[in-house]
Specification:
Its main location: membrane. The chain is mainly alpha-helical.
Length: 397
């Protein structure tokens, strides 16, 4: 690029020093260059190329005429060139002959596409109506031949029926359970926890088939071994075992300090206490899994008076004791309640009666009712025998 000489003035103009002479196509045919459709000076014909030199313009051109003051003449070559580039003649449409088979295929494909699109649109609009209250989303009238689908509405079961006619009662007897008394003796918090963990595993294995056969989902309860005064899922607790319905699926909360303290002095009684109290709270867990616990709470909350409320509480507590008896009856060959252990077991039942408690609140049942329902569960090993909610009031005193 550095070896080429720089262009001189007039290099690209006709007649300038850069003109290539006879190699220019316009000069080979002897014609003059095309005039641009821009203002003309005078109405005379443009000068020939030989009359131009450099960039000089003919001094005779003193008036404006041409395209700025009106349309150029029809024979003007520049105007013709302009029309050819910017206003070409339209290309005529010539229809082509199509195959009838191809047309039919296109029509069928279009119908299939429209049908699928209509189905998609209906589904989309139906979904849309579920989220936005848009009167334009669903047509006001359906075609008479349109298929209608109505989902069955689940009928709510009255709570009195939940407790009195629960499917748990028809699930059948609990099969024989092979579960020995856990060998962990309550000499520390860790041992107490291990004892209840082993007992939980045994009861889970025994109750899961029955709960699922009754049509309910089974889950193991969460075990909490608490310190006295500790706040748990059941609130601040001291000494007493409890069960709570919570977002964890149900929690069994058990004390340990008094148990460790009592064991050296009353070994058989402490062992009976651990087994019996855990059987009771696990019985409440079964009630929770089957909907009985919630229904019972609601019935107690809407009772006509305090007496009716306490009776509802007693029915629920006595059933939980009975369900605990079902397990120990099914496990009696491997978890024997006999000798001193059995005597202490029965002694605990007598002392647990509402009439023997400090506050005398009648919410768990008398010693007589406790003994009767727990023995019924133990001897029958059938949850159906624990339907306290259809028993006469005298049976749940």
């Amino acid at each position: 690029m550095a070896d080429k000489p720089a262009p001189k003035p007039g290099h690209f103009l006709p007649g300038g020093e850069g003109e290539q002479g006879p190699t220019d196509a316009r000069k080979q045919d002897g014609s003059a260059p095309l005039a641009a459709p821009t203002p003309r000076l005078s109405g005379e014909a443009p000068p020939a190329a030989s009359q131009l030199s450099g960039t000089r313009i003919d001094p005779r051109r003193t008036t404006l005429s041409g395209s700025r003051l009106g349309p150029p003449p029809a024979e003007d070559r520049a105007a013709a060139a302009y029309r050819e580039v910017f206003h070409p003649e339209p290309i005529p449409f010539v229809p082509k002959q199509r195959s009838k088979g191809l047309i039919a295929l296109v029509v069928v494909a279009a119908l299939l596409l429209l049908g699928g699109g209509a189905t998609f649109a209906v589904k989309t609009l139906s979904s849309y109506d579920g989220f936005v209250a848009n009167p334009m989303g669903t047509p006001s009238a359906k075609p008479s031949d349109a298929p209608t689908s109505t989902e069955p509405v689940t009928k709510a079961t009255p709570e009195t029926e939940v407790v009195a006619k629960n499917p748990l009662y028809a699930a059948g007897k609990m099969p024989v359970v092979k579960c020995q008394e856990p060998a962990f003796r309550p000499t520390s918090k860790e041992n107490v926890r291990s004892y209840y963990e082993a007992l939980t595993a045994c009861m889970d294995k025994a109750w899961e088939p029955i709960v699922t056969k009754a049509g309910f989902a089974f889950r193991s309860p969460r075990l909490i071994v608490f310190d006295d005064g500790e706040e748990t899922a059941c609130g601040v607790q001291n000494e007493l075992a409890a069960y709570c319905q919570d977002d964890q699926g149900g929690s069994v909360t058990m004390p340990w300090q008094k148990t460790v303290e009592d064991y050296p002095k009353h070994k058989a009684e402490t062992r009976a206490e651990m087994a019996q109290s855990f059987g009771f709270v696990y019985g409440v867990h079964v009630q929770n899994l089957t909907g009985i616990a919630e229904a019972t709470d609601n019935l107690a909350d809407t009772a006509a008076n305090k007496t009716a409320e306490l009776e509802q509480d007693r029915r629920a507590a006595l059933q939980a004791y009975c369900l605990g008896g079902v397990f120990y009856g099914a496990a009696k060959a491997s978890f024997p309640l006999r000798g001193e252990l059995l005597r202490q077991w029965n002694g605990l039942i007598k002392r647990r009666g509402d009439e023997n408690t400090k506050d005398k609140v009648r919410d768990h049942g008398s010693s007589k009712s406790l003994a009767a329902w727990m023995n019924q569960g133990f001897t029958t090993t059938d949850p159906g025998a624990c339907n306290t909610f259809v028993a006469a009031p005298a049976k749940v005193s």
